[in-house]
From TrEMBL:
Protein name in the entry: HTH marR-type domain-containing protein
Gene3D superfamilies according to UniProt: Winged helix-like DNA-binding domain superfamily/Winged helix DNA-binding domain
Location of region: Disordered: 102-122
UniProt cross-references to SUPFAM superfamilies, sorted A to Z: Winged helix' DNA-binding domain (SSF46785)
Length: 122
């Protein structure tokens, strides 16, 4: 019996909430439509995530004409007890060094996925 197991699920280290917060921190006027496209979820899901983040105090939203302008509360603390003593500022800073584009990161096929099953089978 061979060990031909594939990955159980398609998961990433960052949650959609973290990804949306990072993208907003990089582009405070990003459209929900662009966030949805980059995250691979619906605009309604992005609206719910933004509402969650706003309700938890991680960002504020102000209307500027027809566009929203977001401000990330960089000195807010992580929610989970294991990280509760740490501000999100360092997390945001870590990802701020990525190449700056339109604020919506593109998926790059030339980078390794980190999936050891793919790497081991190559």
């Amino acid at each position: 019996m061979g060990d031909e197991r594939g990955p159980r699920t398609s998961w990433t280290f960052l949650t959609q909430h973290a990804r949306v917060l990072l993208m907003i921190s990089r582009n405070p006027t990003v459209r929900l439509r662009d966030l949805a496209s980059a995250c691979g979820v619906t605009e309604r899901a992005i609206q719910a995530i933004v509402t969650d983040l706003e309700g938890a105090g991680y960002l504020t939203r102000a209307r500027n004409g027809r566009r929203n302008h977001y401000r990330v509360t960089r000195h807010a603390y992580f929610r989970h007890p294991a990280e509760a003593g740490f501000e999100i500022a360092d997390f945001l800073e870590l990802f701020s060094r990525l190449p700056q584009g339109s604020g919506v990161e593109e998926h790059r096929d030339d980078l390794p996925s980190g999936d050891h099953h793919e790497r081991d089978n190559a």
